[in-house]
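step 4 of 6: structure.
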Amino acid sequence: MFYREAGDFKTSYADDSQTFPIAFDRYRYYAVLAVALGIIPFVITDYWASAILIPFLIYAIAAIGLNILTGYCGQVSLGTGGFMAVGAYTSYKLMTAFPGMDMVTVTLLSGAMTAMVGVMFGLPSLRIKGFYLAVATLAAQFFLVWLFNKVPWFYNYSASGQITAPERLLFGHAVTGPNAEAWVKYLFCLAFVFVLAWVARNLTRGAMGRQWMAIRDMDIAAEIIGVNPLRAKLSAFAVSSFYVGVAGALLFTVYLGAVEVGEAYGIQKSFLVLFMIIIGGLGSLFGSFAGAAFMVLLPVALKVLLVDTMGWDTALATHFQFVIVGGLIMFFLIVEPHGLARLWSLAKEKLRLWPFPH
Amino acid sequence: MLDAGQQGYTTADGRRIGGVVMEMRNITLRFGGVVAIKDISFDIREGEIRAIIGPNGAGKSSMLNVISGFYHPQEGEMIYRGARRPPMKPYQVARQGIARTFQNIALFEGMTVLDNVMTGRLNHMKASILDQAFWWGRAQREEVENRKRAEEVIDFLEIQHIRKTPVGRLPYGLKKRVELARALVSEPKILLLDEPMAGMNVEEKEDMSRFILDVNDEFGTTIVLIEHDMGVVMDLSDRVVVMDYGKKIGDGTPAEVRANQEVIDAYLGVSHD
Ligand SMILES: Nc1ncnc2c1ncn2[C@@H]1O[C@H](COP(=O)(O)OP(=O)(O)O)[C@@H](O)[C@H]1O
Ligand SMILES: [Mg+2]
């Protein structure tokens, strides 16, 4: 009854293009924010942080990044894992070369570095599209992982070939290293999610986002109204890779702490993030969150349900997970390309009219 | 009746037609062995409605594609506002104030009508990516200013009721109108329309004709129009170029063209839909 736009009139164009045009959505957003900031940090446990919350936040950033490139600009990428590795290795090199550098700067610079690498690997997109571009980004994925494995300089010649994040403090609290507490890591990641999601929202609702979507929907028509395809595509690669790089850096510094590149940033990671945006919804920021939440929660939920409660074999439960994800990917690709986000907005549409559907 | 001078003339219905704004000189365009345009010259005057007619495959769309930078002719040159135009990419042509619509609608199907029209304002939006990222002054101000212009055009073309509808869901006739809106909102000097009325019913055709006349009248926009329907062409246009098999076979006022024997033989004599 309360989910209404009636009586919620917009008196200016600025109001009309705001992030949550319906008041109720705005209140729900404030409620989520209040819980995220006012409650979770005080009750968070190590289990919740490492099983759900921190991976969710980090993958949400990666999913927003890939969604900008694929969902908004229509350029398919299978190189997400490799680009995350660029973020991770940049942060490692920065942390070890400049021990005094604070983690916010480290993380942002890692994103910037990844943006540059992303633009480089995005250059072929000016010539090739769709399947061929996907293969080109796949090549980037394998090349980057190979590079970080092969060149010892990247892992500071460590015997194991791994990289390990040293401890760094922020406002007197450890954010990285074994002594970092769950709530600090959580808030650190949350801050990035908050700012980056807001920036993504600004970019996608304005002139930049319209250029990306124009290229996605019909590149010829985009050109004829003055979109420079080179600038539009490369800016999408840059922004997208920035997000992916930040996510890769956080995954290493805050979440995993120690990383072997092939294992943490292999092709599976590229697919994981791609599945997130397909299931969550291509071209939707909300969908990026929904998809990240779904892919992070699914294995946890299945473990609790099938293994812990029903006594299934762990391997069997894992296979079951593949079946579910595979089925959902097919469902969303064929039936509902806009994913969970679309289902959600359909539900809202119904709710908007309820209880008088006509 | 038409003097060739740069000072222009006034039409019977009192519209002011200016000097030559664009001139095509000896344009030849080939695709492998196919010669789509053979040594064609004509000019476009400021403020006029210039029609290009001819049977299917005559090379009309190819001519628009040459003007808008999609095709690069092997021979000939284009003079735009007094200067020879170097080979350009379509987006550069757009920035020179030339907008167009396509024979087969080319809209952004996944975006709303409003977003499609707003995309047409891109050349008027200069905020840097950083301004946009943080929604700072300039980005926000430009969004609001350009939204005003977009809404004006939306009102003008009477598509207010569908402004938040994704274009993919619209019927054909409305899509054509949205495409016109997107071209018009950029405030072009020259508007190129490739068969804007193809596939429309009589009522839709009348609406579209009225919009084209209104655009020309109110904004003084120069319009180059490809159209099949002879009746429409005679009603709308000031001057007509007739093409057949890539050649120009007639050029003049509708009345002159209609009296031209070669045109009658090649085009008007045969029946067209
Ligand atoms: N991109 C292209 N490649 C090859 N041939 C083309 C191309 N575009 C147009 N043509 C050819 O040029 C001729 C003119 O086509 P077009 O300009 O579309 O005619 P019209 O718009 O007058 O119907 C046709 O023979 C067509 O097959
Ligand atoms: Mg044609």
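step 5 of 6: annotate
 - Chain A is about 70% helix and 0% strand.
 - Residues 44-266 of chain A form one domain.
step 6 of 6: archive
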